[in-house]
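Can't paste images in this forum, so I'm doing it all in text. The chain is below; anyone willing to post the predicted structure tokens underneath?
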Amino acid sequence: MDQRGGPVHHLFFGRDDAEHDYADGLLRQGFQQTLAYEAALAGRKSLVIGRKGSGKSAICAQLAHGQVYSGPTTQIAPDNAAGDVIRRFDLQGVTSDTAKSLIWRYLFAVQAARHLVRHSGEDHRGWFRIPPAARALRDFLHANGEDADARLTDLISRGAGRLQSAALSVKMFGVEASVQTGEAPAETRSEGARAMRQLDALETGVRSALTALECAEAGHPPLLVLVDQLELVWQADPDSHALVTGLLMAAKHAARMYGSAVRCVLFIRSDIYDTLNFSDKDKFRSDEMHIAWTPEALHDVALTRARISLGRQLSDAALWGEIFPATVCGVLTPDYLTERCLPRPRDAIQYLTRCRDVASARGHATIHEADVLTATQQFSLLKLDDLAREYNVGFPFLRQVFVLFEYGSFRMRRDTFNERFAAVRDSLHDNFDDYTELLNEQSVLEVLFAIGFLGVGRDDEVVYAGTTVLPMQPGDDELHVHPCFRPALHCEGTGPASGLPGPGPSPDALVPSYSHTSFLRSVAATDVGFIPDREVRLLDEVRYAADRLLRHLDRSGLSADLRVQVRRDLESGLERRSRSAARVHVRTFASLLTEMSGRLEAAGYGREPVTLRLADEARTLERALGGSSSGGGGSDSSG
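Text version of the structure:
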């Protein structure tokens, strides 16, 4: 049948990413107002957390461009270049978290200053009568080259360079820029202290302008700063950890500094947020809003987008009965579809689009039950591959573990999983030898449950992550592969949960290369989300310390010969040691740094930041030997 005259030809459910979906108009016209969106719009929540594809960027796009927020907005989405600048930014005398919070604070302050300068000219009394505090902001932007919009990378690079060199011009706020001179008081001799002093002056200037303009009294809505797509710059290393932690600290600081005049809303992927481990994380609980989708909400997404693409007021019964079949395998079609995808809009859109594409390729005017079944098989293979890719940075072993569930029943007893895992444990430990302490049956099951691959039987029902507050428990003995992934793993059988292996490969056949299924393609191993073994962490601390010191060396005031000598000493001391010698290696490297610091001080470079940083890093390594788990924070010395 020629489908060009049928609904399949015009049916369209949208793009995979929010940016293109918004540009095409489908997201703009069919945006679903969720609780997370309403909380962010109203200012009740400032931290929107959700899995990949859950709609974070859609909320951000709607707030920025949807003409629903009555005030000014600015959107910050760092790319790889901007993210690299922030990751590499550090300051002697403060931790890496604190240093990166300062560059975020600078970015927020510049955005606020730009807004106030424009706002004072457009909505207040004209340039010749604006308050002195607002004129000071105009002068600051001009003096520092920030009065014109520029690429985010350029803005961050300029700010980073000026904060590191104390070259930020803040004299218009009554603060001299020359705090890096030898006559400066001791508390401002460290890079961190100097940067804080200048940044405090800038932020105080912004706050003074806000007070002088009396925007709150006039009922002017606050500037809304939206930060999104941090996953593009996340690399699961200490610098990335500090980048996000510093952002949280800066947003909290902005709320205190600017009050209700500036609001920051951060959009962070849940797998990134869950890895953050810093002492003040509990202070963000009331700001958190986790995105959750119900089957009913996903049905609304499907119906709304079908209506928009077809250009008519489509009824629920028409979509699920005329365009789609009413049932699939005896199950109502909308229920069949939502049961077989993870509860997030991107998965639903991709699944619906796959059904439409299969029907179109077959020349069908509407979507048949056979089309849905074919699309289900294709979608399952894609989603299993996507799940491994989504969590590859945190858990690169997933592809090897998925194979343990191939063939037979989708239900498996824990003891059967333990037997199958035992057959591949040695191979996993060989491939991911930095994490042998945690690559065990219970930890892997906890991961599989947390990412939505597995559910567990509790009280005569199956629960998945997101439908229960309890993580995988030691007593959860009945494991269920999520329906989304069963077709790809050929485990759609409904036999008893006895753990019978079925017709699949024996445990011995699971050990080698895992290449017997189409989805098991090789990937490069990266750092896993598990905490590495202690010896590995200690060795990594040495490497991170050396990296930070080399960055300081590049901008130091040492002579050329001394720079060459310091670099040579660091590189020779950085030689990788075995785990068994980890503690000795850390202690030896810390002693080397102390010695190098002493040599530079004796050579007349005692006030050089790199000299102070050598001593700081030596103390950090000594603390790591004492049992603390560093996040690559470097020094917490005040200089």
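The first helix runs from residue 7 to 10. Confidence is low (pLDDT under 50) at residues 178-184, 496-529, 628-639.
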